[in-house]
Design goal:
Strand order of the largest sheet: 2-1-5-8-10-12-14-16-18-20
Shape: globular
Oligomer: single chain
Largest sheet: 10 strands, mixed
Number of helices: 10
Number of strands: 20
Radius of gyration: 21 Å
Structural class: alpha/beta
């Protein structure tokens, strides 16, 4: 049974086991029809030219939907950050684990529910107006798959005029105990007018003989004069693959800041799409991929400027060692009405071994004439001159190399405003590249 046949054979069963409103059911039915009509991408598809999914889609996956009987073994994944206070929600194979979760912000400031509950309330105007509105599943097979099969995830709503000081940390843990597993977490985040929120998505997995595939979709709506700080951290095991898509829709005077950090995994595909739909908006896309082994990480980013007087900045940096490989494909669209747009894009890579490789493709499409836009990319080895300078000061070869690697990554690390995430990332990079105490 091939990948699509396996999915389609489970759709009716999964639908019968879930409870959703009529509005959500209609969306899911349309999504599975779209999935059935689309081809699984191959390297002949331009957007997947450098990422071969053949081995990934050749497996027969199971679809876990039951609650977790023993949640204690996942506690170690939840304690990865040294945060003093946080709203924490935990999902194993896409299923909400109440025992490991806790919400401390008052409901007047922050409304959170697992998505399976929100599905039942989807006739409510807010959910009906936002679910699947930004993450368009037409022509996007994995978004269609997630839309059709997502059973759980999180729904977050920040009311107007609320500055949420306590972050929301979402832990997604993939665990294949007896067979290969696929899961489809789905998140919907709405930040109201003049409000702010910090959200961290952390993806990890257990190491077992079986493979996992996480197909995640997150939609973020940033209302006028609102601000969302969004992090995506990936530390999945070498047999875990990840296809994740984030869509952000930013209204007038809104700000969206995303940082994506990939530290491990088998095949990792990060899609980040931002629509600037107002004046005086800001969007920042920061990416760091520091990988070893045979990890393959593919970052596809896109920012679409529809209206004037806004700015965006993309900075992605890659550290690739051993037989790892990377892809960066960043796009900037500036529509005809988006005059006075400032949009910048940069991708820089260091190959730490002759067997590592990266393909980079920055792109601009501009229909306006009064703009400031630029893009560029670099690929190379560690610079021998500063390495020689450090060696001449009595620093060992290994330590000098590690210092230069860390300095290269620091451009991204210093943009991580949430200190526990920054310290967590710094520790892994330091240990991996020889700077640990």
């Amino acid at each position: 049974m091939d990948f699509k046949e396996n999915i389609l054979s489970h759709f009716e069963t999964l639908q019968e086991s879930s409870q959703v409103s009529e509005a959500i059911y209609r969306i899911k039915t349309s999504a599975i029809q779209e999935f059935a009509d689309l081809d699984v991408p191959t390297i002949k598809h331009e957007e997947w030219k450098y990422t071969n999914l053949k081995n990934l889609v050749s497996k027969t996956y199971s679809f876990p939907v039951a609650s977790i009987a023993d949640s204690s073994k996942y506690a170690r994944f939840v304690n990865q950050y040294d945060e003093k206070e946080a709203n924490i929600l935990v999902f194993v194979n896409g299923v909400y684990v109440k025992e490991l979760s806790h919400i401390i912000s008052p409901e007047s400031e922050l409304q959170i529910s697992n998505l399976s509950e929100a599905y039942l309330q989807s006739e409510d105007t807010m959910i009906a107006n936002h679910f699947a509105k930004y993450a368009k599943f037409e022509k996007e097979i994995f978004v269609a798959l997630n839309t059709a099969l997502s059973q759980d995830g999180v729904f977050i709503h920040v009311p107007n005029h609320k500055e949420v000081q306590t972050p929301v940390i979402l832990h997604f843990i993939a665990d294949a105990n007896a067979t290969d597993v696929i899961c489809h977490p789905r998140n919907l985040v709405i930040v109201g007018k003049n409000s702010s929120l910090t959200v961290i998505e952390h993806f990890s997995s257990t190491l077992t003989p079986f493979s996992t595939l996480t197909n995640a979709v997150t939609e973020v709506y940033v209302a006028p004069n609102a601000y969302c700080e969004h992090y995506k951290i990936q530390t999945e095991e070498e047999n875990a693959s990840h296809i994740g898509t984030t869509y952000a829709y930013v209204e007038r005077d809104g700000r969206f800041n995303n940082t994506t950090v990939t530290l491990a995994g088998k095949i990792v595909r990060n899609n980040l799409n931002i629509k600037i739909n107002g004046e005086n908006c800001e969007a920042f896309m920061n990416g760091l991929y520091a990988v070893t082994g045979s990890t393959h990480v593919d970052n596809h980013s896109s920012v679409d400027h529809a209206l004037p007087n806004s700015q965006s900045n993309q900075l992605y940096k890659g550290l690739l060692a051993e037989k790892s490989s990377g892809v960066f494909n960043g796009k900037i669209f500036v529509r005809q009405d988006a005059q006075k747009t400032n949009a910048y894009q940069s991708n820089k890579n260091i190959l730490l071994a002759p067997t590592a490789n990266v393909d980079t493709k920055p792109q601009l499409e501009i229909w306006a004439n009064d703009v400031k836009c630029s893009h560029g990319c670099t690929v190379g080895a560690l610079d021998e001159e500063p390495l020689f300078y450090l060696r001449s000061r009595g620093i060992s070869q290994e330590q000098a190399r590690a210092m230069l690697i860390f300095a290269f990554a620091d451009d991204i690390l210093e943009r991580i405003k949430f200190q526990p995430v920054r310290e967590f990332t710094e520790k892994i990079i330091a240990e991996r590249f020889g700077m640990a105490d």
